[in-house]
Amino acid sequence: MLNPLGLTLTSASLSQLMPMHVAICPLGRITSMGPTLAKLIDRPVPLGQEFLGLFSVRRPTGVQHYSDLQNKVGGRLQLVLNDRHESFRAIAVNCVEGGMVINLSFGIHLIEAVRRNALTDADFAPTDLAMEMLYLVEVKTAVMQELRNLNMRLQDEKSAAEEQALTDTLTGLRNRRALELRMPSLLAQGSDFALMHLDLDYFKQVNDTLGHAAGDHVLRQVALALNIETRSSDLVARVGGDEFVVLMPGLSRPERLSVIASRIIQRISQPIAFEGHSCKVSASIGMTISTSYAIPDSETMLADADAALYASKHAGRAQAQLHRPGATDRCRA
Amino acid sequence: MHGLINRSLQSFLTDTYGPSVWQAIAKAAGLKTTGFEALLIYEDAITDAVIDAAAKQLNRPRETVLEDLGTYLVSHQNLEGLRRLLRFGGVTFVDFLHSMEDLPEHGRLGVPNLDLPDFHLVEEAPGTFTLEITPLIAGVGHVIVGLLRAMADDYGALVLLDHAGLRGARECVSVLLLDQAHSSGRSFDLSMPEV
Fold this sequence. Notes:
The structure holds 2 protein chains of 2 kinds.
Chain A: H1 11-17, E1 21-24, E2 30-33, H2 35-41, H3 51-54, E3 55-59, H4 66-70, E4 76-81, E5 86-94, E6 100-105, H5 110-117, H6 130-165, H7 176-189, E7 193-201, H8 203-210, H9 212-229, E8 235-238, E9 243-249, H10 254-268, E10 272-274, E11 277-279, E12 282-289, H11 298-314, E13 320-324, E14 327-331
Parallel strand pairs in A: 12-13
Antiparallel strand pairs in A: 1-2, 1-6, 3-4, 4-5, 5-6, 7-9, 7-12, 8-9, 10-11, 13-14
Helix pairs in contact in A: 8-9, 9-10
Chain B: H1 3-17, H2 19-28, H3 44-58, H4 62-75, H5 80-87, H6 93-99, H7 103-110, E1 119-125, E2 128-133, H8 140-155, E3 158-167, E4 170-179
Antiparallel strand pairs in B: 1-2, 2-4, 3-4
Helix pairs in contact in B: 1-2, 1-3, 1-4, 2-3, 3-4, 4-8
């Protein structure tokens, strides 16, 4: 047979073990309260007050009187401090002498409670894991911050690398890769667009007589001319040594395209000064428009623009020709 | 070596001596990138190379560089988070000193693959301690001297600290506690500062 041995603690010892306890007498009135809990109440410890007046039991439901509480001994309770809206986890146990001891903890609301009530290390029992939880939250926050920073750096580097992968380093224009990405997406969207293939005339002479530095300078000036004569929504790519392609979304009128081509040729035909020399180049252009095809595709359009360009070269250079289904039209620059 | 350790070394050199000095040190140490990532793992030799390069570039003994690093870890505002984590170790400086033995475990709570040295605290006489540290980098004891000095300030304790040489493979730091409550120290509020 077990001896129902009583274990008597002073109120001070009880407070050291459980700084958030409440002891109540068989009438349900408060006889002792741990110091941390007392700190939250913000007024003298309400000894003698009804426990179920100061606190409500939110879960389980239906606990109104001391006798209801008696039925919940040993189970998990959720309590609310009535005028503070502070919520607790708790357990109630019977005392040998009669009455009950109820021990509370902040549970998941610990972080908020510490902040709101300016709690310190001394407000928790040395066995309480509250400090570890606070510590973990700070570690987690620091690590998450570090991860966020890392992600942002990676994102920036990724954007820069992507940008670089699509850029022609000499002229700052887009490159062939960018063109090969953009054109299928325009086709997939079913947008109308014009395609212009441009090749410089007499560029080889500049390179041969004045050297590569002069050639590079000319290519940069041509890039500038193309940028000036096109819209920011157009894609201007350098796709070969002195070959360029311009994609013009939304442009499908041949007259308009001819005007733009003429302006480009005119601008490129202006003499370009380089270290006391005057470099003279011009441009031949072949063009095609997506609306000329029942089902446009990249390969056919590029081939047609190339054929139109060849026709321009053949017809005496410094001019633009538009591919038309079945024929190649000539427009004077 | 965990990137967190390399990264703190980088932060120390950058915050104390400026980005251009850090770049020069990184270059002299043969780093392939401009900096360390805190959550990657690096070859151990890189850390030593950076410390040696820093000592050479700054024209200071390696020990001094390491001790300054230790002080920086606790006292620089950019690492306030780390100071707070260390302060969770205890209410008094002696509590904190004892908590150093739990430091590797505490570190791994947040960063599971973080390798920190093991600490063993020996109380030689009342108020006289020796902290033994297993190897991590040569001269780790000097980092701890700097760190403990800054933590003593933080707690408001008056202590005498010294690197006390080797016990076997372990570096030793002697701690003589003169006054646990010499000054009020810096405040420590349990709740995290709002960002």
